[in-house]
Amino acid sequence: MNRQALDELKQQIPLLDYLQAHDWQPARPLSRGRLMGLCPLHQDHAPSFLVDPRKSLFFCYGCGRGGDLIRFAELYHQVKFPQALALLRQWLGLPPLLWQTTEFYRMQLHCHGEAIAYLQQRGIYSSELIEHMRIGYAPGGCLRGHLMPLGFPLQVLRQAGLVTAAGHDTYVHRVAFPLEENLYGRSLSVSAPAHRFLPGSKGGLYLWDQVRHYPEVILVEGLFDYAALWQAGFHNVTCSMGTNLNARQLRQLCDGSRTIYLAFDADPNGSGQKAAQSLAYRLTEHGVIARTVSLPEGHDPNSFFAKGGDASRFQSLLEEAQ
Ligand SMILES: [Zn+2]
Fold first, then answer.
1. Cα 92–Cα 98–Cα 103 angle in degrees, nearest 5
2. Distance 67 CA to ligand 1 centre (A)
3. How far is the CA of 101 from the centre of ligand 1 (A)?
């Protein structure tokens, strides 16, 4: 991201808006429009956090930290610069309702041992990854009660598909992954449908802005596959959420010169392989180099790593891809 893009992002998100969206309230006004309040970065008991809304800068007299919007996002979310940018862009793009839902589910994740146990069973244990993907947990029976006091009417929650016609939370016992304009929920229970999205488009490729500059990109069909690869150090991975790519996802893959490695599931009935072949053919027609990765039969990238595969073995599969 260049200087100009950074400035644009900062212009699009006034620091004060971002602070207030994270429940910060000024305790008292100072001269020249500046505000003073409790510091969201440390345990503050007397207001020591100074905000200058006109300059979009902050400084804390308690913990001594200060800076601009991006610096605040780094400190507040405890992430590095590129992740802070990604979070800010996501925040900018997500409708407020989806943002609040995601934040709520993220808090729930750490209160529910069954969700953590499920992630571990799927081979996901890195807290850096959980933060990167902003993985949450929908226990059910509590989202509506959280969102309505924030000012979202029941009708709006129903329209968004977060609450059923009968008024119950739609996502129950699901691990939740925020997408750019949707929310994917994976059921922990075998009696419920495994995959669930909100009504509307699944959107473009997963976190495409973070991978589009790589000369080689790995495309997987599921978010757990994405998680396994990212955790193993393959950060040039993206996900189409299913083997049927929508027009936007296809355009994204073709928007520059790169090699795409298709690492779809090696289903025993061959459906994943067939989907990869036909996609490879379409990409080639658009002048993109496409290679199909052959996983051991019955495996997807997630199970490959969960069952003991490692980065060097996967790297060999990439090199053998045709
Ligand atoms: Zn502070």
1. 90
2. 12
3. 27
Euclidean distance between CA atoms 275 and 242, whole angstroms = 10
Name the nearest CA neighbour of 145 among 161, 165, 168. Answer: 168
Cβ–Cβ < 8 Å for 196, 171: yes
- C-alpha of residue 15 to centroid of ligand 1, in Å: 16
Query: Please, which residues bridge with residue 175 across strands?
Result: 137, 186
User: Which distant-in-sequence residues (6+ apart) come within 8 Å of 20 by Cβ?
Assistant: none
Q: Residue 12: pLDDT above 80?
A: yes
- Going through 188-301 in order, the beta strands assigned E by DSSP cover 195-196, 216-220, 237-239, 259-262, 289-292
Tokens representing 189 are: 């229970």
Summarize the confidence of residues 76-98 as an average pLDDT.
Answer: 81
Q: What is the pTM of this model?
A: 0.75
Beta-sheet pairing, 183-187 with 66-67: unpaired
Kindly give the distance from the C-alpha atom of residue 58 to the centroid of ligand 1, in angstroms, as a whole number: 10
Report whether 153 contacts 173 (CB < 8 A).
Answer: no
At residue 159, the pLDDT reads 87
Which 8-state DSSP code applies to residue 208? G
Residue 76 Cα to ligand 1 middle (Å) = 10
Instruction: Report the first-to-last Cα separation within the chain, whole angstroms.
Output: 33
The DSSP bridge pattern shows strands 136-138 and 66-67 to be unpaired
**In angstroms, rounded to a whole number, what is the distance separating the alpha carbons of residues 150 and 190?**
33
CA of 215 to the centre of ligand 1 (A): 41
- Confidence tier at 90 by pLDDT (50, 70, 90): confident
| Residues near 126 by beta carbon (within 8 Å), at least 6 away in sequence | 231
What is the per-residue pLDDT across 114-146, written as a single tens digit (0 to 9) for each? Answer: 999 999 999 999 999 999 999 999 999 999 999
